[in-house]
Amino acid sequence: MSSMLKCPNPSCPYVFDPSQVPTGVVLSCPRCGMQFTLGAPAAPPPQAPASESAPTATLPGATRTATQQAATGASAVQKPERPVEARSSAPVTGGSKAQVILLAVIASALIAGTALTIYFKFTGTKSGGGGGGIVRADDVDVMFEELLGWSEDPDTRVKVGSMYHFARRREHPEAYMIFGTRKPEDNRPPRPTQMAQDLRVPFPKLFDLSTVREEQGGDARWLGIAPEANHSFRFRAQSTDGLVWVGEGYAVAHKGIAYYWMSWCGENDFDSLKAEFAEFRGKFAFMGNRKWETKTSNVIAFKGDQVPYTISDSEGVWKEISAADLNDEKTADKQPLDKVLRAKVLPNRDRKAIPAEAELRVYVLDGAGEPQDRAKELAVALETARLKEAELVGTFTDITEPPQGDPVPDVPGLHKSTPVVRVLGTVRESKSANRVLVASGAKVGDKIVVVVCFCKAGERVLFETKFVQIASSLR
Q1: Does residue 10 surpass a pLDDT of 50?
Q2: Beta carbons of 84 and 56 less than 8 angstroms apart
Q3: How many other β-carbons are positioned within 10 Å of the β-carbon of residue 83?
Q4: Is the pLDDT of residue 15 over 50?
Q5: Which CATH architecture has domain 300-472?
Q6: Domain boundaries, the chain
Q7: Which of 352, 182, 180, 174 is CA-nearest to residue 267?
Q8: What is the pLDDT of residue 102?
Q9: In this predicted structure, what is the pLDDT of residue 228?
Q10: Prediction pTM value
């Protein structure tokens, strides 16, 4: 039995029987394509005409060429008796195949690199100096540099809700950061009351809400803006597993978008990490590409039916009830009612939520007296009568601190100098019956026109500034 000969290519396992091939013939391995000469080189053949092909030696039983074998794929099993095609020349050599593969790899890498460059330029991250990558959030006009040692935290991002777009986490010691935004609706700036609520949205999702304690503290500015009251705080809270956490929260508004930041870590690690939190916040900046103009407020004026008075709504939140409903209200009211307006506000702009409601009533009174005194007297009398029907008794206290709620648009030329009185009605037996009353009065001809606004005391922050605006516009 002849000894078998392995292909000289170290990485090729193919073997064949050398006794079946004349010495000196150039062989081409059908497995890898490598060419080699068996034994001493054969004498050069006589010159053949150009039309004739070079002589080849083929082992007995050969049924496929190397090219045909490659077409069948890698499923072919190599056996010692597989034929080897011996030839003096080959159209494709192993070296040329390697060159083709190398060129294909290089081309693919160049194409992939170009695609990644374009992607990161517009949507992703790119190198950022000596720190981490740069994250560009073009839709909210902000960018930030990743802080080394922090990684993406998809679990926390999902837990806190869709309003928070980015979440990061670090290990040893454990700490977290979330960043979110809220875009404007109808080109109106975000409401401060809503911003305060949004900033605290993560609390019940991360901690036992009954353990959350806030205190003033933290940096004076974020994104170059000083947060308003109630938009910057330090907090301490306990998670459901009993761990105690300390952190900070910030909210600022810029060109109609509200921006939120919250970071926290274990109570014992806060002092060592607060500088790192500040460093991370310092890596956030506006891109400066946003074009935005505040929507011009459309003032709606309501005219009196009995006497020529006017009240003006600078936000467009008040709506008159229908004529039929007004007739019903006049029949039920024991006072000379002239007009009824109602306002609805979604506490967090959640269209599925039940809106908070407030009411405004205008009365035309006979008699003399100071309009402001008559206004307060009527407001308290109306509320006392309401409570009496419910068999409740209330106490009334003048409100002297600044009105609660969002600032109202300051429309040039809008009348806003009529004095107003603000009263808090408190019922000891039922907190849900407490109300905030805002009233104003003005002399119109021989009559006194009185505006009375009211809402639940728990919704004061949603309506009080709106009450003051429209009541002070009475003229």
Answers
A1: yes
A2: no
A3: 18
A4: yes
A5: 3-Layer(aba) Sandwich (3.40)
A6: 1-91, 125-286, 300-472
A7: 174
A8: 57
A9: 86
A10: 0.57
What are the phi and psi torsion angles at 223 (to 5°)? 55, 30
3-state secondary structure at position 360: strand
Are the CB atoms for 7 and 29 separated by under 8 Å?
yes
What would the mean pLDDT of 270-289 be, rounded to a whole number? 95
Is residue 420 exposed (0-12), middle (13-18) or buried (19+ Cβ within 10 Å)?
Answer: buried
The two structure tokens encoding residue 79: 């056996």
Tokens of 137: 């959030």
Query: In this structure, what token pair is assigned to residue 294?
Result: 């505040």
Return the pLDDT at 351.
63
Determine how many CB atoms are found less than 10 A away from the CB of residue 214.
14
- Residue 321 identity (one-letter amino acid): I
Whether residue 85 contacts residue 64, with contact meaning beta carbons closer than 8 Å, is answered with: no
Contacts 24+ apart (CB under 8 A), 55-60: 55/88, 56/85, 56/86, 56/87, 56/88, 57/21, 57/22, 57/25, 57/86, 57/87, 58/83, 58/85, 58/86, 59/16, 59/17, 59/20, 59/21, 59/83, 59/84, 59/85, 59/86, 60/20
Class of domain 125-286: alpha beta
Cα–Cα distance for residue pair 104/107, rounded to 1 Å: 5
CA distance 330 to 316: 24
Give the pLDDT score at 346: 78
How remote is the C-alpha of 45 from its chain's centroid? 79
Top pLDDT among 56 and 137 is at 137
Q: Give per-residue pLDDT as tens, 378-435.
A: 999 999 999 999 999 999 999 999 999 888 877 888 889 999 999 999 999 899 999 9
Query: Reduced to 3 states, what is the DSSP secondary structure of residue 147?
Result: coil
